[in-house]
Amino acid sequence: MTDPRGTEGERLQKVLAAAGVASRRVSEQYIADGRVSVNGEIVTEPGRRVDPERDRVAVDGTAVQLDPGKRYVMLNKPTGVVSSMKDEHGRRDLQEYAGGYPERLFNVGRLDADTSGLLLLTNDGELAHVLAHPSFGVTKTYVATVRGTATPAVMRTLENGIELDDGPIAADRARIVGESSKDRTLVELTLHSGRNRIVRRMLDHVGHPVLELVRRQFGPLHLGTLASGRARDLTKVELGQLLTIARAGGDDDEEPAR
Questions:
Q1: Residue 9, Ramachandran bin (φ over 0: left; ψ between -120 and 50: alpha; else beta)
Q2: Adjacency order of strands within the sheet including 57-59
Q3: Which of 8, 13, 101, 140 has its CA 20 to 30 A from that of 214?
Q4: For position 180, what pLDDT does the model report?
Q5: What is the DSSP letter of 186?
Q6: Are residues 97 and 148 both part of a single domain?
Q7: Where are the beta strands (DSSP E) in the chain?
Q8: Which residue has the higher pLDDT, 252 or 138?
């Protein structure tokens, strides 16, 4: 990291302006107001120099990405597409959506071919490592159409925990979100497990097999109105939120990315 008293690196206000946080003048005011931190320490001198490739900068506690070469894309993955950049069996894969970007993107985590919804594509290996690390357990929210009439009691069972073949599991939250008919119910599950096909297995265990499954949320990211098969860059607010939790997870990770 840079020596704050030296002449190496770039001035903090210049780096903030280049990252799109604000103009240099406004960035200087942010610094003077004590709203900017470098590597966890509040900085109040605009002349502070930083290394954009190594130093971690945050504004109001929200992380700022200083590397303009990093890209973060939200994809609403359709069903029938496998979570791979090149499928060896010739099935539809993520290259169909990532191929239009100049950067070489890869997916953070996976969704089954028959599950649609939010998938993050990026070329930021450090962030992907942390978010995909089992110990980090990023929260994910799914909406499922299930067979049968699910009840609040069934939702409580999922929250209290069930025993599957590979161990116990409990939803962080489970609720009914649509009117039930005699043959199907719309439910929402939030959990932080990354186990294979975990939502389908949980719902099947309580007698309500999944007919359709969509991931609506991944950490702080929400699918919103993004149409199936469409992709977009994260907003600066979304990126700041994602980087903030990823950096917190990275600090706690005992096996940092190399």
A1: left
A2: 41-43, 36-38, 57-59, 62-64
A3: 101
A4: 66
A5: E
A6: no
A7: 10-11, 36-38, 41-43, 49-50, 57-59, 62-64, 72-77, 106-108, 116-122, 140-147, 162-164, 167-169, 173-176, 184-191, 210-218, 221-222, 231-233
A8: 138
- Asked if 168 and 57 sit in the same domain, the reply is no
Q: How many CB atoms lie under 10 A from the CB of residue 99? A: 9
Do 131 and 226 share a structural domain?
yes
* Identity of the amino acid at 91: R
Q: Would you please indicate which residues are annotated as catalytic (active-site) residues? A: 112
Domain contains 202: yes
Say whether pLDDT at 256 is over 50: no
CATH number at residue 144: 3.30.70.1560
Q: pLDDT tens across 36-46, in order?
A: 999 999 999 87
pTM: 0.86
Q: Judge if 109 and 81 occupy the same domain.
A: yes
